[in-house]
TrEMBL record, chain A:
Domain of life assignment: Bacteria
Segments forming domain VOC: 3-136
InterPro entries: Glyas_Bleomycin-R_OHBP_Dase, Glyas_Fos-R_dOase_dom, VOC_core
GO molecular function: dioxygenase activity; lyase activity
Pfam family, one: Glyoxalase
Organism: Kitasatospora atroaurantiaca
Keyword list, A-Z: Dioxygenase, Lyase, Oxidoreductase
Gene3D superfamilies: 2,3-Dihydroxybiphenyl 1,2-Dioxygenase, domain 1
Presence of the UniProt keyword Lyase in the record: yes
SUPFAM superfamilies on file: Glyoxalase/Bleomycin resistance protein/Dihydroxybiphenyl dioxygenase
Name recorded for this polypeptide: Catechol 2,3-dioxygenase-like lactoylglutathione lyase family enzyme
UniProtKB/TrEMBL annotation, chain B:
Source species of the chain: Kitasatospora atroaurantiaca
Residues of the HTH araC/xylS-type domain: 11-109
Keywords for this protein: DNA-binding, Transcription, Transcription regulation
Stored PANTHER family: HTH-TYPE TRANSCRIPTIONAL ACTIVATOR RHAS-RELATED
Leader sequence residues: none
MF GO annotations: DNA-binding transcription factor activity; sequence-specific DNA binding
Origin organism lineage: Bacteria, Bacillati, Actinomycetota, Actinomycetes, Kitasatosporales
Protein name in UniProt: AraC-like DNA-binding protein
Pfam families tied to this protein: HTH_18 (PF12833)
Amino acid sequence: MIRIATAQLWVHDQEEALAFYTKSVGLEVRSDVTLPEMGNFRWLTVSPAGQEDVAIVLMAIPGPPVLDAETEAQVRELTAKGAAGTVFLTTDDCDAAYAELSARGVEFNEEPTDRPYGRDCGFRDPSGNNIRLTQLREM
Amino acid sequence: MAPHPPARHLLRAKDLADARYAEPLTVAELAAAAGLSRAHFSRQFRRAFGESPHVYLLTRRLERAATLLRTTDRAIATICFDVGLNSLGSFTTSFTRMFGLTPAAYRAAFPPAAAHAIVPGCVLRAYGRPQHRTFREDGAQGPGIA
């Protein structure tokens, strides 16, 4: 059996991303490990309370030798342009979540809207990643 | 803290166009969302996203109009205003240029909007129930045994 364990987002700044995903979105830290022997590479993952087996890796955009300088600049730019990734979250109450996250300063790019599949809204993380928050309709 | 590339601010303007396309948005408002002066903004936006803010907003509105043509039975003039455009003539011109069909022809090329509507099952059951008829009791025409 194959299951999803982690999905990755590029972030411009891990501290900023950590504060955003924990304090503003309300996720929990699953792993926060810094490896000095690997140039202080930091493995930072977050996921919702009650969902310990699936996490988002908040990955700092690496420079050489992982990514050549030109690619690093491109990834930074693509992330800032909102072209680097999307994560879909789900909730039981889209409007309540919207109100709660808005009150914590989350930058929404779409207010709760009715869709054929339910009700959803969307926000950006500080780096520009697109996060959708969907309340699925009962079919 | 690692700084964000300047494009992060331009993305705010793009998000504003996506969210508020139906309102009479000006380039000045989009520039303000990006925190840039108007002249500087248009040039930077084009560099980041490949087209001017004005063209981006227009294509967003036309995309919405195309969706409404496919999925609703709203009148074409109503759709033009619903997506934030205020001239039916220029709407028809730019829509035709972008989609290769007039709004009316574009709509006709898709199944009727009713085919896409998700009407709740309870409503279909309530409103779709036929009138029961027994041919002995009334002479009305209706579905049933001929």
